[in-house]
């Protein structure tokens, strides 16, 4: 397998982006590397720094913004999320890279010269609102946060046409295998 692909997942909160990325890289890790994003939000139970996210202080994140270190970043519910160029560059020449990008950034990211020149495939991962709400509830989100994220999901879905593929997430293994098959079509 050639190591020249960049795979980008985006979609609303609760769609399973992080879980799918983790499972995909576990299953196909010889060829795919997970690029870890940054955030200023607190760690959730079971998350590890430098594995799930780079957990940064607001000052650290804002300093990286000033230095132009992010491919993309956004602020959501007063917390920053973003993807560092250095994280992508760390793996690109060795493996295919898998990363998560905010849905509000995906159209702009696809237009960056860096991604235009690479074999980039984008997937909008989604689920119906009942499934999203259920997953968010399992994370311990309040009803207020769930409702706010479901409203945001309606806006985020407007970016789906910017992606190469839209995938509705039902069974985890099926979605992971479907993505792999799409990436390896000749």
Task: Give the amount of beta strand, in percent.
Answer: 15-25%
Kindly report the spatial arrangement of strands forming the biggest sheet: 2-7-1-8-9
The number of helical elements comes to 8
Report helical residue fraction. 25-40%
What are the segments in which pLDDT stays under 50 over at least 5 consecutive residues? none
The CATH level-2 architecture is identified as 3-Layer(aba) Sandwich
What's the average pLDDT? 90
CATH class (first level) name: Alpha Beta
The dominant shape is: globular
Number of domains: 1
Which fold does the CATH topology refer to? Rossmann fold
* Radius of gyration over all CA atoms, rounded: 16 Å
User: How would you characterize the largest beta sheet?
Assistant: 5 strands, parallel
Q: Can you tell me the CATH superfamily?
A: P-loop containing nucleotide triphosphate hydrolases
Gap between N and C termini: 12 Å
Classify the secondary structure makeup into a structural class. Answer: alpha/beta
How would you spell out the order of helices and strands?
EHEEEHEEHEHHEHHEH
- Per DSSP E runs of 2 or more residues, the count of β-strands stands at 9
